[in-house]
Amino acid sequence: MDTVMTIAEIKAQYCSEWVLVEDPQTDEALDVQAGKVVAHSKDRDEVYRQAAKSPPKRFAILYTGTIPKDTAIVL
Questions:
Q1: How far apart are CA 40 and CA 48, in angstroms?
Q2: What is the CA radius of gyration of the chain?
């Protein structure tokens, strides 16, 4: 998984999964545009464990699925 992938490629390959992206390339709004996928899983906690076990210097965690309408997001 050393290949830099675009966000479209990441979403297509890891549909409805949590994805740990190393060295994310972002736009002005800090939205991830590309990066190296270092871990992925349907289980969010598994990706968080991987990030905690061996944290990259710069990383982002993404969910590539659709969030249900009645879900609250806390930042």
A1: 10
A2: 12
State pTM to two decimals: 0.86
DSSP letters, 1-67, are --SEEEHHHHHHHTTT-EEEEEEEEE-TT--EEEEEEEEEES-HHHHHHHHHHS--SSEEEEE-SPP
User: Which pLDDT tens digit goes with each residue over 21-56?
Assistant: 999 999 999 999 999 999 999 999 999 999 999 888
